[in-house]
Amino acid sequence: MTTAMISKDPWTDPNAKPYLSLDSVNVQYAYNRVLSNLSLSIYKGEFFSILGASGCGKSTLLRALAGFEPLSSGSIKIDGVDISNMPPHKRPVNMMFQSYALFPHMSVFDNIAFGLKQDKVPKNQIRERVFDMLELVQMQKLADRKPQDLSGGQKQRVALARSLVKKPKLILLDEPMAALDKNLREQTQFELVNIQEKVGITFVMVTHDQEEAMTMSTRMAIMESGRVSQIGVPHDVYEFPNSKYVAQFIGSMNIFEGIMVQQSDHYITVQTGDLENEMRVSHTNIIPVGSRVTIAIRPEKIKLSLYKEEDQKGKVHQEFNSAIGLVKEIAYLGDMSVYHIELPNAKIIQANVTNKKRFIDRDITWGDKVFLEWFPENGVALLS
Q: What is the DSSP letter of 90?
């Protein structure tokens, strides 16, 4: 099995044609519109993830792609073919369910072969294709086992092989790692991406696990109330959220509300009631002076140091993008510690610090007075 050659970042090419297109898709139950004028373009060979809070419509979107959920209006096309009214069994789509849905009375081989047998594929071809899949998911030695004799990770591989064996144009993954423990989940994430790259089939995954989506995706979409709020590569969505909702949904975020009072060539100046000092933020778009803005700053971007009166008198610390607070809580996570800092107005700021020393040798501990500071490029300005 050879690795499929996929053009790099086709979504940046204005001449590239989407492989999967959703155009103004609506799904409505009585007076409840679950998907609202949703349009989406996914390119061939992508590993595309869909995230969102419970009830945002992400599972409905996956079911609409599979044909289990009828559209109220709009269209879905795969490779230029409109499948909007095509029944599920005729769509070039396979879905891998969260529960894996393996047949308990069948062996691993027969589970994978089931769809081919239903399509009346010749026996010699079935055998060849099933063993190709077993080799791909490294399950050759377990072909005769029943699902109850497999681990969670092995069941997942069988379910994936069964989804791939019919060579669909699109694989849909519904929370594929949910049943796995943390260590196995992390290992399986890379295995799944490697398999997807080898077969070159387009994957669309729904997940609530942000870390999982960040690790595995070529691009990701954040959904809110039946619509797509932002689409982008994981780095861009994380570093440059386009709304307060996305900023707070992906990872942890410190949020400040203020008024934009000045704009220079390189940054904007914001006054906020949360800080004594002004805030400066490198800007990427035009924001009118006087606008209400939200400033979002990731906890890992904030630098912590013990506050010393002599440092302040000597003006060691900067007079913008800074604050003084008290350490109220510390969460030790092994590779890093999460500090909750209380500002004079009682607002809590979170700062993540990499643990370079042992826990007992830390410089900053509970009750310490600390100085917080960050660079203008560390913040993101969003219109409130």
A: G
